[in-house]
Amino acid sequence: MNRDKFNCFTQKKKKKKIETSIDHLPKNPDRELESIPTPLNSILDPNETPLNCLHPLHVPLPFRPPAFTFPLDVLFSYSTPKLEKPHQTPPLSTHETPQTKTNTLSLSLSLTPPFPTMPTLRLPFLLLLAAAAAVAAEASYLDYGDALSKCILFFEGQRSGYLPQDQRLAWRGNSGLGDGWTYNADLTGGYYDAGDNVKFGFPMAFTTTLLAWSVVEFGGLMPPPELRNALVAIRWATDYLLKTVSQPNRIFVQVGDPNIDHYCWERPEDMDTARTVFAVDAPNPASDVAGETAAALAASSLAFRSSDPGYSDTLLKNAVKAFEFADSYRGAYSDNSDVRDHACPFYCDFDGYQDELLWGAAWLRRATQDESYLNYIQNNGKTLGADENINEFGWDNKHAGLNILVSKEFLEDNVYSLQSYKSSADSFMCTLIPDSSSSTHIQYTPGGLIYKPGGSNLQHATSIAFLLLVYANYLSTTSQSMNCGSVSIGAATLRQQAKRQADYILGENPQGISYMVGYSAYYPLHIHHRGSSLPSIKDHPQFIACKEGSIYFNSSDPNPNVLVGALVGGPGEDDEYEDSRVDFRKSEPTTYINAPFVGVLAYLNANSNPS
């Protein structure tokens, strides 16, 4: 056993202290397990490992047991219901009696002579075995239903504006209540994009599009309560987006100055920094934000079509209006000098506005079935770069998602004029299959996670996993496959690839931790998030000023408020993850990491072993 890896040893090593917490125990992560009886501790050499360090419920990241060192091997069997773990939501279509599987666990502990007899260990030893059994069971079990519920819940922690009475993350309070007053507009509501207190329109619109697409494709697989929660999450965003296009020839693109906001570490409820509003007026361009807003509203109109037809119509009308602005005044919103210095480098349009024009038109085509949008996609595909095969899909680059979305109409309705979109979709998918003969492949970490350098990496893993499942559905619906050179790839391969990404994120990775906060027994505790890391307004009603929050940012204590469901930026290219609030690329959650994962988890909850 390498002592240097454990933070409970007294040796002063260079390894950073990383805490862990237990999901289903009281949230007091830095508690010590002092309840272990003295007799068992007393048999250990004082210079050897304290038993507290060996306890399976209190092991620092990145080391997740299941094994201890012990001259005695203990073999025992335990039975766990396959579908009846606490908090699991079984698939809606399940009619089978849950099966029971029996596992055998081998444990050992390293004790110094004289070695005690079994009667000496009695209850403490049995408790140790039982706890270890629970860890082993957890390691081989992923509850997609629980993950889905928490993935959606996360959005309540990002809310801005007046919070409703049914707000479930009770440590949050009202914030940003004066947003928009300088323009005589109501810009309250919406979401903070990440761990700060700024409302960026570009990533918020993309988040909304992906949440809505998750419901459009996989809402029928969601348990009814979670479908409702997903629609609530979408509506919190669309209500705000409707406000951003409420004034003629103007689109509001941002509330809050990140240069000032990032200077402070304070709760959204305490914000005393300027809530600067950034708007783009015609004829100045904002094709990217307006195009993405059109996509978000059009996709959301589909999500609400059956449950709230009136609201759906409102969304669609405003989507048309947003697209007209985007297409009429072409250019990037960050080309405007008064916006550039405040949107960049955070959410500059680095990849051009052309993809958002096609993306917005594609969603309007799907929502309206209007031939004019089909003609737009057909006639502008080449000039707007639809054939660019960039193996990326995110808030700034929509090409991969665009090609897959448009391919649905080619595959299902035989619209042969869209063949080029299908070819580009196939090319993109082939880059994701390591065994294919594609000339280029996306990078994977040694542990199997999709990796792209720069920024929060899990945004790529969740969005690409979502596209894999969507395209697999389109292929299977039409009984088709795709050719990656000499290799034929079917829907099952794409689904398995998506499942591997999801499973890695939820805990099947070299670190043995979940990158979703609050899921499983081991997850990040020091996330880069103001509201989570500062005392809640309910526990500490006194005002915490801009720089007074620095002590909480620099604290080694776990965040006092658990942002349940948050997906952090994730590990590096070597699968290493350091649970550090300072390393925002790895520890900061964002709404657009979670949004596509809602669809992924909805599918896997209903199809845990996809084929």
UniProtKB/TrEMBL annotation:
Stored InterPro entries? 6-hairpin_glycosidase_sf, 6hp_glycosidase-like_sf, Glyco_hydro_9, Glyco_hydro_9_Asp/Glu_AS, Glyco_hydro_9_His_AS
Which stretches make up the Glycoside hydrolase family domain?
A: 144-601
For biological process, the GO terms are:
cellulose catabolic process
What reaction is this protein's catalytic activity?
Endohydrolysis of (1->4)-beta-D-glucosidic linkages in cellulose, lichenin and cereal beta-D-glucans
Q: What is its EC number?
A: 3.2.1.4
Which residues are named in the active-site annotation? H528, D579, E588
EC class name:
hydrolase
Q: Which Pfam families match?
A: Glyco_hydro_9 (PF00759)
Q: What is the top-level taxon of the source organism?
A: Eukaryota
**GO molecular function terms attached to this record:** cellulase activity
UniProt key word Chaperone: no
Keywords, in A-Z order: Carbohydrate metabolism, Cellulose degradation, Glycosidase, Hydrolase, Polysaccharide degradation
Q: Which family does it belong to?
A: Belongs to the glycosyl hydrolase 9 (cellulase E) family.
Protein name stated in the entry: Endoglucanase
* Organism (species): Eucalyptus globulus (Tasmanian blue gum)
